[in-house]
Specification:
With about 375 residues, the protein is an alpha+beta fold. It has helices at about 1-40, 45-80, 80-90, 95-130, 140-150, 240-245, 255-265, 270-295, 310-335, 340-360, 365, and strands spanning about 155, 160-165, 165-170, 175-185, 190-200, 205-215, 225-235. Strands 1, 2, 3, 4, 5, 6 and 7 form a seven-stranded antiparallel beta sheet that branches. A hairpin with a 4-residue loop joins strand 3 and strand 4. Helix 2 (about 45-80) runs parallel beside helix 8 and helix 7 crosses helix 8 (about 270-295). The longest helix is centred in the first third of the chain and has 37 residues, at about 1-40. The radius of gyration is 27 Å and the shape is elongated. About 30% of the residues are buried.
Length: about 375
């Protein structure tokens, strides 16, 4: 049985590597050609950008490669009559499924490392390698991340003050749980402003809502406290710059991101975008697992005349295009609050999983 298992394993790995290579070759050629035609960056920047984008593309390419590996390995075993010979010699379909199970776990674990750690790290490297004109380029990821995780707040240094906020709402252009800390010429803390929200009005003018202002903190007497329902102030930053600094959350590793999401939720803030981001990093390995088992119906029809290479290729292209289109649509709906995050990220893969279970139940006698 060891020889049979090794044959199945080698066919699957060969098909996986081939599919992965073909897909990355297409992406590489398309990306490089389009960038050169645009003539908007140097050759060095183009290749650096390609390297930084590889982890992001892997989240789509690796699941497709898992699907293609099972599909094409079963097809190859069929056309050589190896599949029907394996079953005739006592190799069970359940043994075949066990091999797929461990392969799916292995690839899923790698995908979790890529999506949970490599992609955030590659995103942080972009600021050093490519985003040379970013307003917040001077901030090191380690410092920003440490302060973010410690309190569930995003800290940044403005012009003449330090500030933090818990969440930036791009649609409303508002900062939730905003505070700013102002210093005098001697570097002593002199004024603190706290607000429930800071809403952008125009240019660098922001309207604070639910405001408490603590003045004269550097004096040898009790500070004065003023409370305002609304208060206009100049922050020195525009919404686009807060988009930039808030993107540091996307650079967090999956365990740090989990801590941040918990702290933001604990503040009572609706931040579905970050929930989607966290669940998406978990759902991609799960999709690898599901895609590995999707074509297993071919195991129950080992006749070489059933299906063909052309049909397999068409199925791979049509299914993956439709799946990722629907999956991306669900993620968008989840970010907009129209679908709960866990349904947006896991709904479609779970439907595919039900199809696999139904297929196994229909042929359960053959898998024994």
């Amino acid at each position: 049985m060891y020889i049979f298992s090794r044959m199945v394993l080698s066919e699957w790995v060969r098909a996986f590597v081939t599919t992965l290579f073909v897909l990355f070759s297409i992406i590489f050629v398309g990306n490089i050609v389009s960038e050169f035609l645009r003539d908007a960056a140097s050759t060095e920047d183009i290749f650096q950008n390609f390297i930084l984008e590889v982890p992001k593309w892997m989240e789509k390419v690796v699941p497709i490669s898992c699907l293609g590996a099972t599909l094409f390995s079963i097809y190859r075993l069929k056309i050589t009559n190896a599949l029907i010979s394996l079953f005739a010699l006592g190799f069970k379909r359940s043994d075949y499924l066990k091999i797929l199970f461990f392969l799916a776990l292995f690839v899923g674990a790698i995908q979790l490392l890529v999506g949970g750690y490599m992609r955030p790290y590659a995103r942080s490297l972009r600021k050093v390698w490519l985003d040379k004109d970013s307003h917040f380029r001077g901030y090191k990821k380690g410092g920003v991340s440490a302060r973010t995780i410690a309190s569930g707040l995003i800290w940044y240094k403005g012009k003449g003050y330090f500030s933090h906020f818990s969440y930036y709402d791009r649609e409303k252009k508002s900062l939730n749980k905003f505070s700013s800390f102002h210093f005098d010429d001697q570097g002593e803390l002199s004024r603190v402003v706290r607000a429930d929200f800071a809403i952008h009005e125009e240019k660098t003018t922001w309207k604070l809502v639910g405001v408490e202002v603590y003045n004269h903190l550097n004096k040898k007497r009790f500070p004065t406290v003023s409370v305002y329902k609304e208060l206009s102030t100049e922050l020195g930053e525009r919404p686009a710059e807060f988009d930039s600094i808030e993107s540091d959350v996307h650079e967090l590793a999956i365990d740090d991101l989990y801590d941040y999401v918990k702290k933001v939720d604990g503040l009572g803030i609706e931040a579905t975008e970050f929930d989607i981001l966290f669940f998406e990093r978990l759902s991609t390995p799960f999709i690898c697992f599901v895609f590995t088992f999707l074509p297993i119906a071919g195991l129950f029809y080992p006749n070489r005349r059933v299906g063909g290479l052309g049909k397999s290729v068409i199925f791979l292209l049509v299914f993956t295009f439709g799946f990722w289109f629907l999956y991306s649509s669900l993620l968008t709906m989840g970010s907009n609050g129209k679908v709960i995050p866990i349904v947006a990220t896991f709904g479609l893969p779970v439907i595919c999983l039900f199809y696999i279970l139904i297929t196994l139940l229909r042929h359960r006698k053959l898998t024994e």
